[in-house]
Structure formats: structure tokens, C-alpha cells
Amino acid sequence: MDTPTTSTYVPSIADTDQNYFSERFTSNVNAIPELTLNDAPWPGHIFIISYQDTNQVLTYHKEKGVVLQEYDGSHSQRWVCHSMLGWLGFTANPGDTTKFLSHYDWKLRCRDITINWNGMFCVRKRLKRLDGFQILMRGNEDSLWPVGMHEDSDVAVLQGSDAWWGFTMIA
Prior knowledge:
CATH class: Mainly Beta
Structural class: mainly beta
Shape: globular
CATH topology: Trefoil (Acidic Fibroblast Growth Factor, subunit A)
């Protein structure tokens, strides 16, 4: 049997139009009362990414980088989902200074202006009807490693981590 052909990646409008994201990102999206945890990440949408079943969410902090903070609905806690070559990528603060979430020395940072190999995400649903997702990132030699919490409380790519993450779509 022949292997079926696959489609070629073509960027969606949402992937290429930063003004589209800027308008949606800065629109009046109010803080939501409850994080749902179970919205599958999809390019062109904005998400709150929470750590397990806590109110701690990924937050972009200009001086500290990517940290976990209590959810307050601020713009720094909103992550825009992008796609490239079948991989997912996330940005905070869309516009002229948009930086993609990636890992450096295994810790998550926002430094790149495009999705590079160290900013490519794969997200998979947890088994047995459990809430949330496992976030995997490319490590060395195209391996996938989970994202978790480093012993110094930094969000990092950690081989063997069993951490899980909730995605709540807000726009």
C-alpha cells in the first residue's frame, strides 16, 4: 500500500497578520471567573495556560521572563497560538515587539521573533478523561521533552516531568 501524500503547510491569515492579533489581543476580553483547562490549543486563538489545577498561570514578565503567577486576567497572561510546519508556537504581547516562547538552557523565555526549533510545541491530551494536557517541546536531536517546573521554580523543559497544563481559550 502506498503512503498517502500529506498536504503542504500554508500559513493561515492569522499566522501572517500581526495586526489581526494585536486587535484581538488588546480588545476588551475580560478576566474569566474560572479556568476550564480543557480547550485544545488552536492557531489564531488566545489562551490562558495554567499549571495543573491551580490558579498559577504562565505569565510574561519583562524583567523576570516567563514565570508562574496567580491568574488576574492581565494581558501578560494571554498567549496567542501560532503554527508552523505542523508545530504550535506561542507569543505574548503581539505587535512590533512580539517574541515567541522558546527554551534557552532548558528554561522558557520569550526571545525569538519567529518560531525556531527550540520554540516548537506539541500538546497532547491526558489519558483517562483527566483534565489538561502535556506540553512537549523539541529537545536535542528532535526528541520531545515535557515542560514542567524546575527545582528553582522556573518553567523549563525537563526530561521525565509529569507536570500537566490547562488551556483556557479566551478569544
